[in-house]
Amino acid sequence: MNHNKFFSLILGLTATVFSVQKSAAQVDPHFSQYYIYPMGLNPALTGAMDGDYRVSAIYRSQWGTVTSPYSTVGISADMATNRNINVGVNLYNQKAGNGGYNYTNGYFSIAYTGVKFGPDKLQCLSFGFQGGLLSRRFDPYKFQFGEQWMPGTGYNAGMPSGERFEKTTSSVFDAGFGIAYYDMDPEKNAALFGGVSAFHLTQPKDPFLKDGNKSAMPVHYSAHLGARIHLNETVLFVPNAKYSIQGNAQEKMLGAYFQLMANETTDFMLGANWRMNDALVPFAGVYFKGMTIGLSYDANVSQLGKIANSNSVNSFELSISFVGKRRNSIRTDYFKCPRF
User: Fold this and answer.
1) Is residue 339 included in any domain, yes or no?
2) Residue 139's closest CA among 189, 194, 179, 102?
3) What's the domain range around 39?
4) Residues in contact with 220: Cβ distance below 8 Å, sequence separation at least 6, in sequence order
5) Cα 147 to chain center, whole Å?
6) Most exposed: 102, 119, 181, 283, by fewest CB within 10 Å?
7) Is 110 part of any domain?
8) Residue 329 domain-assigned?
9) Burial letters for 147-167: b for 16+ Cβ neighbours within 10 Å, e otherwise?
């Protein structure tokens, strides 16, 4: 692909991202360092890596100054095979609020990577599927109700609340699907990668509302695009973009980072993402012998940040990922995965 076509694709996605003008909210838990949690971005990225196996973990803290801040943890592990089939598992958990709300998802992912084309068969289309459990629960005993407040004495947890909760836990089957394209040619100065995905295809019902049958979780659609551009022998430039929509909520992110190759085993990364109408996200990371450690900070620029204490709505993320190769590996179709 020549540079003119490449930049036309980047500009086209940029125009699409900027043309949509809805709320910047997000229903599902999400990460600013979204490529660190690949199967949560697109099931087709299962096993797409510059190695044979990968283990990743990421932690996000949000609203750190409130009593019970949002905290989200994602853990994933995946591996590639020599038979065009890659497999993986991923788990994430979000805790939020004084009511002990807990949102946990666990999935098994599988991707087929047998569609290869181009002169040297180094361009790949991958098709991925994931299925698993979506679990939600809360603790009603952590709430305070008006009936439990007594004149003169204040709150009494031993008093009945007058409320009746039919369900406080729920676990249902959930599924997602994705398609990804990536160029594995190591000789190219500019290599594209991207894809589309859809999550919550089963549209699980809300278990805690009386009209739960009408309150189905909307399908979460996502598209992502990026490129690896070699500026010279030691500096890599990686622009990337992501757009996702779920019901009336959406997220639009544009960003880039530079990767400086210090030596054969060590790289340094520095960049930033812009989540439209929400936050500027600077990022720094280091790569050493297969391990990548990254740190990012969401500096809120939304109206909410202006109304509230801006520091209270900011977020930070810490990530760690390790990609390894088997001693007897015979694979040659490695994808140089983005590290931001």
Assistant:
1) no
2) 102
3) 3-324
4) 27, 28, 198, 199, 200, 244, 245, 246
5) 41
6) 119
7) yes
8) no
9) ebeeeeeeeeeeeeeeeeeee
Q: How many CB atoms lie within 10 A of CB 5?
A: 11
Per-residue confidence (pLDDT) for residue 16, from 0 to 100 = 41
Q: Give the residue with greater pLDDT, 51 vs 164.
A: 51
Q: What is the pLDDT of residue 99?
A: 64
The whole-angstrom separation of Cα 206 and Cα 111 is: 29
Residue-wise pLDDT for 162-207, tens only, equals: 666 677 788 899 999 999 999 888 888 999 999 999 999 999 887 7
Domain containing residue 260: CATH number:
2.40.160.40
Sorting pLDDT into bands at 50, 70 and 90, what band is 13? very low
d(CA 245, CA 24): 9
**Per residue in 71-111, pLDDT tens?**
899 999 999 988 899 999 999 998 876 667 788 999 999 99
Number of domains in the chain: 1
Residue 27 lies in a domain: yes
Residue 222 three-state SS: strand
pTM comes to 0.82
Q: Which residues contact 21 (CB under 8 A, 6 or more apart)?
A: none
Residue where the block lists tokens 């900011």: 314
- Half-sphere exposure of 317 toward its Cβ, with a 13 Å CA cutoff? 28
Token pair listed for 134? 């979506």
